[in-house]
Amino acid sequence: MRQKNPYLLLTPGPLSTSEGVREVMGRDWCTWDQDYHLIVQDIRNRLLQLSEGGEDYSVVLMQGSGSFVVESVLWSNLKNDSKILVLANGAYGMRMAKMVQCMERNLVLLQSAENQQPDASEVGRLLEAHPDITHIGMVHCETTTGMLNDYVSIARLAENHGKIFILDAMSSFGGIPIDVRKPKIDFLISSANKCIQGVPGFGLVIARKSSLKACKGVSRSHCLDLYDQWETMDTTGGKWRFTSPTHTVRAFLQALNELEAEGGIARRHERFKANHLAIVNGLAESGIRPFLREEDRSPIITAFLEPESRDFDFNRLYLALKAAGFVIYPGKVSEAATFRIGHIGDVFPDDFSRLAQTFKNIRFW
Fold first, then answer.
1. Are 215 and 135 in contact (CB under 8 A)?
2. Among 43, 46, 125, 139, which one has the highest count of C-beta atoms within 10 angstroms of its own C-beta?
3. Integer Cα distance of 191 and 37 in angstroms
4. How far is residue 44 CA from its own chain's centroid?
């Protein structure tokens, strides 16, 4: 169902949701009630199926934004003598590294340029040079640029070297097929308001049970203790430790229903790719090019280079597009002037064709 909103949110989340997702938030739920617990368990079971995890994995839901949940995974994994290798080629990889620094845990940072993939051979060298590394963390889709990082080669290295592998799949899970078993991902992290097309309020962790059990008693944060959250949720049939975002949870179940009705992750992936191609090809007619090479781009969000014109002004563009029914994102790339357009949410190729035409109509550079 199409949205009845003044504009489309072409962002990496929050994003444009369907009318059906918004409608189910029109009633209240009791966090202690069995009906609500059944909703939580249904969500957990369906997320497990989407990840291909099977009986070796479990799902934990955690209150807060995606970054809260990343920090929860870090607090629950990293002991005083742990050492994590973080791969970063954008703001969100650097955010993970910043969390580790704030926790005063041992960090090895491999920072790449924002237009470059992490170098698996360099990761291998670092693992040899630092045999005491216990964990590896990275971002799958780096929404700073729209880079789709090749996590598979890094996950294989982690598995071969016996390291815990943490994947921030915040903006990719549900929109890009991922099998958490092949190669092994110990902790996959995502959020309700991304590719599954729910609304903000909680994140999710799909975790290997053996790795999750090793987190018992590790966290120095009470509220962000992933193990305690999992144990409570698992042993009480869907209860959260603290007040959960009930309306958001119910909306997420509806979003899962709509994902299934669309044909699952593979079909949604095809739609997102079509959205991406529609806007890339459309903006090319206005002389606007993507920041990244084609082979590195994700179907989630694209960073575009600002036109090299003294007349170009992003705020002017933003307001003109907003008035025409489209909200885009400012750039976050440090080495180039860019703006970003997201392809996820309840949006379709025709929307991006209309957006490209709007660029032509309002062009002032």
1. no
2. 139
3. 19
4. 17
Give the phi and the psi of residue 135 in degrees, each rounded to 5: -135, 155
pTM (predicted TM-score): 0.96
Three-state SS letters, the chain: CCCCCCCEECCCCCCCCCHHHHHHHHCCCCCCCHHHHHHHHHHHHHHHHHHCCHHHEEEEEEECCHHHHHHHHHHHHCCCCCEEEEEECCHHHHHHHHHHHHCCCEEEEEECCCCCCCCHHHHHHHHHHCCCCCEEEEECEECCCCEECCHHHHHHHHHHCCCEEEEECCCCECCECCCCCCCCCCEEEEECCCCCCCCCCEEEEEEEHHHHHCCCCCCCCCCCCHHHHHHHHHHCCCCCCCCCCHHHHHHHHHHHHHHHHHCCHHHHHHHHHHHHHHHHHHHHCCCCCECCCHHHECCCEEEEECCCCCCCCHHHHHHHHHHCCEECEECCCCCCCEEEEECCCCCCHHHHHHHHHHHHHHCCC
- Residue 104 buriedness (CB in 10 A; 0-12 / 13-18 / 19+): exposed
| Cα dihedral across residues 220, 224, 227, 228: positive or negative | positive
CA 336/CA 197 separation, integer angstroms: 30
* Residues 206 and 51: beta-carbon distance below 8 Å: yes
Six token digits for residue 317: 């563009």
Question: Tens digits of per-residue pLDDT, 258-286?
Answer: 999 999 999 999 999 999 999 999 999 99
Nearest to 61 by CA among 217, 249, 216: 249
CA 5 to CA 66: how far, in whole Å?
Answer: 25
Say how far apart CA 284 and CA 129 lie, in whole Å.
45
pLDDT in tens, 153-209: 999 999 999 999 999 999 999 999 999 999 999 999 999 999 999 999 999 999 999
Contact residues for 290 (Cβ-Cβ < 8 A; gap 6+): 146, 280, 297, 302, 303, 304, 305
Which pLDDT score is estimated for 5? 85
Structure confidence at residue 1 (pLDDT)? 45
What type of residue sits at position 220? R
Q: How many residues does the structure list for the chain?
A: 365
